[in-house]
Amino acid sequence: MRDFARPGAAQGPDNPLVLHVLGARPNFVKAAPVVRALAELGVRQGIVHTGQHYDALMSDVFFADLGLPEPIANLGVGSGSHARQTAALLVGLEDVVLEHRPTLVVVYGDVNSTLAAILVCAKLNVPTAHVEAGLRSFDREMPEEVNRIVTDGLSDILFATSPDALSHLAAEGVDPARVHLVGNPMIDSLFSALDHLDPAPVRARLGLPERYAVATLHRPGNVDDPASAKELVNAVLSVSERLPVVVPLHPRGRTRLAEAGLVNGENLLIVDPLGYVEFLSLVRGATLVVTDSGGVQEETTMLGVPCLTVRPNTERPITITHGTNRLVTPAQLPAAADRALADGAATPSGELPPLWDGKAGPRIARVIESWLRGGNLSPAGQSVSPKSL
Ligand code: UD1
Ligand code: UDP
């Protein structure tokens, strides 16, 4: 049995190592710009893939499209209930952290892999940074909200993507000196891909006309319960009476949504999840997007595509105030689609979210590099030094 009481020496300040823990589709998109920017600064780093998402179309395609380096480890935890998946993540990640003894572990977003990594590091006294800190839906029925609160409570360095996050973290007692408003690395990835986002080839491949809607649906609150799934599917069917709808379907909802009637029809096309570049190409050319995704709310804001989010709340209100996003219930969806098709993508403030300029990755990398060199979070900040395990 491993002797946990006597781990080897940690990576000291002379030989720092940054580990990024990634597990699910949106993690890859958020991490790519940070990994690239740290590489440009010459920081030694590695990716640990937890294997939470494992289908080629949910994982490999993102490494290829985003130019992410091969992971140094893939834990292959796979799917399961929250307890089983999180338990497998904890066990696997503890071994990896003890083996590699990183100076800093960077986690992304709000998935179970994020939560597990932050817990493991907190118990092993390994410093951590959370990218996309401080978002709150104030809805604890969402598993992601629980993950966000715990992750932010235990992170040493917190990178916020929007100003509202700063007040949420302050209200929860997080020292502001540990928080950095850096912009949105998911938008960096979008900027990097922009020149390759051509709707024509994917439209041709899928046989879509010029005007079409894209729908993505995977939130447990929408797809797990048969009655909710049915209500949602009926609403999407109603949108498909107005214009063709293509649904790149996340594996989570597949069976339940098909049982509820989300099947190929004259104006409805159900396809496998798409790779990053192909998906965003489709979104860029869309007349309307219907979604319950977090990231898609942000991407449509930047691409200026009207987005109807079928959720009672969002942890990304900036996509409503500074973007093209609207929250709707399934019952409101058809009328909201009519309005969006008539009005296009008006943004209430007329301004895009601050610092969503494609430079969040370099900002994050500079904070991390300076911390690795000096052990300080910020000139005024509480110091969290690289520690031994
Ligand atoms: C997870 C995140 C969610 C995020 C989403 C991004 C948690 C709690 N949830 O949800 O916040 O929005 O990823 O896509 O971490 N499955 C496959 N192949 C895969 C992966 C999953 O078939 O490669 C199926 C399995 O049946 C699995 C189900 O999808 O049980 C759910 O996967 P899981 O990773 O637990 O959660 P997501 O719903 O994907
Ligand atoms: N995405 C993709 N292919 C798809 C659906 C989504 O590449 O078929 C991308 C999308 O552009 C965004 C990310 O996946 O960058 C969002 O992931 P998801 O909606 O699964 O998670 P969430 O953001 O809701 O956590």
Automatic annotation (TrEMBL):
Q: Which parts of the chain are coiled coil?
A: none
Q: GO molecular function terms here? A: UDP-N-acetylglucosamine 2-epimerase activity
Report the Pfam families cross-referenced here. Answer: Epimerase_2 (PF02350)
Entry EC number(s):
5.1.3.14
Domain UDP-N-acetylglucosamine 2-epimerase intervals = 43-369
Provide the alphabetized UniProt keywords.
Isomerase
Q: Which domain of life is it from?
A: Bacteria
NCBIfam families recorded: wecB
* PANTHER family for this protein: UDP-N-ACETYLGLUCOSAMINE 2-EPIMERASE (PTHR43174)
Could you say which protein family the record assigns here?
Belongs to the UDP-N-acetylglucosamine 2-epimerase family.
The name this protein goes by in its record: Non-hydrolyzing UDP-N-acetylglucosamine 2-epimerase
Species, as recorded? Streptosporangium vulgare
Q: Which gene encodes it?
A: wecB
